[in-house]
Amino acid sequence: MGEGRVVVVTGAARGIGRASAVAFARAGYRVAGADIAALASAAMDYEPATPEDLAETGRLVEEAGGEWLAVVVDQRDTAAIREAFARVVERFGGVDVVFANAGIQGFAPLLEMTDELWHDQIDINLTGTANVLRVAAPLLVERGGGRIIITSSTQGQHGTLDGSGYSASKWGLIGLMKSAALELGRYGITVNAVIPGLIDTKLTRHEDRYAQIIRSGGNEPTGDVERDERTAADAQRRKLPLGVPWVEPEDVAPLVVFLASEEARMVSGTSFAATGGDSANVTA
Ligand code: NAP
Hints:
Elements: E1 6-10, H1 15-26, E2 30-35, H2 51-63, E3 68-72, H3 78-92, E4 97-100, H4 115-143, E5 146-151, H5 164-184, E6 189-196, H6 207-216, H7 225-239, H8 249-260, E7 271-274
Parallel strand pairs: 1-2, 1-4, 2-3, 4-5, 5-6, 6-7
Helix pairs in contact: 1-2, 1-8, 3-4, 4-5, 6-7
The site of NADP nicotinamide-adenine-dinucleotide phosphate has 34 residues, from α1 and α4.
């Protein structure tokens, strides 16, 4: 399906980025995986990705039959992104598909929020993704067309208790995606979003996230991680029509590969969700 086409996946060190990189390799793409592979924000309270994580994605991509190039880059830095894409072009001869997926998530009520928590999420999730698009789009134009897929969230489709910075960043990405679809269609470039629900990755498997789920249900977390994890899982099972607590990264990846495909040539300016049915709780 990919027939040697070149995809750049950001946030490729683990989670949704890794699962998608592997799915792209299986579909016959050559894969460049970009990631900061280090602490992106001191305001996060979950474990950062490492260079070993990025290398492991490379191993899995190659095992799936794909060619692999790793690039370490902070997507807040436009000059560094330009250099990273130049390396991809040098290695693979061009870029056909961009999956702009990297992001972070932190929680705090507005009344207690630090400048750092707000700015890091907006700077990485919204501005960083826009940086990637602004660097990549001219390369796709040069190529005569292409695909851009960005990762938003259900939390970019509704308000989020104690998650205003994240919600604003992911809602902003929908505006970016739709505007880019309007501007780039004439060059044969489609632009869409994937909407992951609660996915089983490092970004979600920690006490702060469990506490947020429990508080959203009107209860208070205990602070005991294992107990709060069980309570959050039960709440998710009850909330999601498909009855799972977490959705797997591998459940999101096929949407990304479809949106990158030739078959999706008339799909642009919209979003595709894998949420275990939670999408039924948003308006459209
Ligand atoms: P993840 O496992 O933490 O993967 C995200 C990757 O992006 C990490 O390797 C991370 O590195 C990297 N990254 C962070 N800041 C970066 C930067 N400035 N430049 C380059 N790379 C950077 O999380 P995930 O769950 O797979 O999330 C992937 C995307 O899906 C994110 O945009 C997230 O917001 C979105 N999403 C996730 C869920 C979910 O439930 N998991 C739901 C909806 C949407 P560090 O670890 O060092 O930060």
